[in-house]
Specification:
The protein is α+β, with helices and mostly antiparallel strands. It is about 35% helix and about 20% strand. The radius of gyration is 23 Å and the shape is globular.
């Protein structure tokens, strides 16, 4: 998801016309007919791709509560991956309600900008599987709920084209690369993202986590004395993969373009691109858990970050009760199913996740298989740039012959540097 500026179309609701480059204020309900009702003005941030669905949801919410208030909603475009930075730059000026990836949760809590969920918190917890569920743990800080879990698909798995691979083929990275080479096609994953290359290091048993201070990482990716694998072993395994003629490191946009133009026949990516991939591959569309990879002559399972999209409420909102009511509505069973139908994103609500259509999805099946090898994402900011530089270098094939231990030592040192956003 990327932050974007778009010109919003002018929309008319009950005589109110207003538009701008990045937001669309509109009334839901007619003030002239409800003069005795209070006016509630709420701002929301969303990614551009989700804006049409959000508008429908807001209209439905206003209809349900038409006897309580006249609602004016302002929708602005803010990417889920950039939300934290925008909020922390001006907490009081942030939207009343916004969606963000769970890796941003701890720092938002540390900066005391999220409203504690006090209305029906137990119902929200039960709907997501209880206090011990990963979803609720991802939304809980110091024993208190501070966000509403919205989707469980903030993870990654393997997409593959059945015209080129069998289900048995995609169990191994070696076979995937060999088959792709035979076909003159490509397998891709984004080596330039620490989110993805974590899969190799964690699969080899090396560790990464955020310290209790919320701004420092704990990382041993450069370990030279760990068993059975060291950091150098992982780097060599990654270099072996990137040396294949079938391998290409592509970001999210590159993955989509490769799928569309037919050059990419398998790739590691997330559920948000499921609809696009399915449209491109048709009946050959398939998904599976991540493959195993070869390291020191052995096969190890690739792991992943397993994450959630969360809906948070600005602590400085003027309407905390209405915000909790609305955020709860946007993330309830019915609306999570609507989101699944709209974008293919996986519900976290246990009833929605058990829905027959959801269970029939290849993507949901792949995520379920991969969940046994998934870990909640908890890292501080320095990880991202440092791991990206490491991955980009390994994708290039170590052309200048750098000492791999020195390379990993430098990366690890950058990863554990304290974040400046304290």
């Amino acid at each position: 998801m990327k932050k974007s500026n778009i010109k919003a179309a002018v929309r008319r609701f009950c005589g109110i016309v207003l538009a701008s480059a990045v937001s669309v204020p509109f009334f839901a309900g007619c003030a002239s007919e409800n003069d005795k009702l209070p006016e509630v003005r709420l701002s929301l941030w969303t990614d551009e791709s989700n804006a049409p669905l959000l508008r429908e949801q807001l209209d439905s919410f206003a209809e349900l509560h038409k006897d309580e208030a006249v609602f004016e909603f302002t929708i602005s475009m803010e990417g889920e991956d950039t939300c934290k930075e925008t909020v922390l730059a001006d907490p009081e000026g942030a939207a009343d309600i916004y969606t963000f990836a769970d890796d941003q949760f701890e720092e938002l809590c540390l900066n005391d900008v999220l409203l504690e969920i006090t209305k029906d918190a137990q119902d929200v917890t039960d709907a997501c599987g209880g206090e011990d569920s990963s979803a609720i743990q991802a939304a809980t800080y110091d024993g208190r709920l501070y966000a509403y879990p919205e989707t469980a698909g903030n993870s990654y798995f393997l997409y593959y084209n059945k015209a080129y691979f069998s289900p048995e083929d995609v169990k191994s990275m070696d076979t995937i690369l060999a088959k792709a080479e035979e076909s003159g096609k490509k397998f891709t994953m984004d080596y330039g993202s620490g989110w993805y290359i974590y899969s190799f290091f964690k699969g080899a048993g090396l560790d990464l986590s955020c310290a209790d201070d919320g701004v420092t990482n704990i990382c041993n990716w450069n370990a030279a004395d760990t068993e059975p694998y060291t950091g150098v072993d992982v780097a060599r395994a990654m270099l072996d993969i990137s040396s294949s003629k079938a391998f290409v490191s592509l970001n999210d946009d590159g993955f989509v373009e490769g799928v569309k133009d037919g050059t990419v026949i398998a790739g590691i990516n997330g559920a948000w691109n499921a609809e696009t991939v399915e449209q491109a591959w048709g009946d050959n569309f398939a998904a599976a858990k991540l493959p195993t990879f070869t390291i020191k002559g052995s096969q190890e399972q690739m792991c992943c970050f397993t994450g959630f999209k969360l809906v948070g409420i600005n602590k400085f909102t003027k309407y905390p009760e209405y915000c909790m009511e609305l955020a709860s509505y946007l993330t309830d069973e019915e609306n999570q199913l609507k989101r699944f139908e709209y974008s293919g994103e996986c519900p976290v609500n246990i009833n929605a996740a058990a829905n027959e259509d959801v269970q029939a999805s290849p993507v949901v099946s792949a995520l379920a298989q991969q969940s046994s090898f998934g870990y909640i994402q908890s890292v501080a900011d320095p990880f991202w740039d440092a791991s990206s530089k490491l991955g980009v270098y390994l994708a290039s094939g170590n052309l200048d012959g750098r000492d791999l231990q020195q390379l990993l030592d430098e990366a690890q040192q950058a990863i554990v540097e304290p974040s400046v956003n304290k």
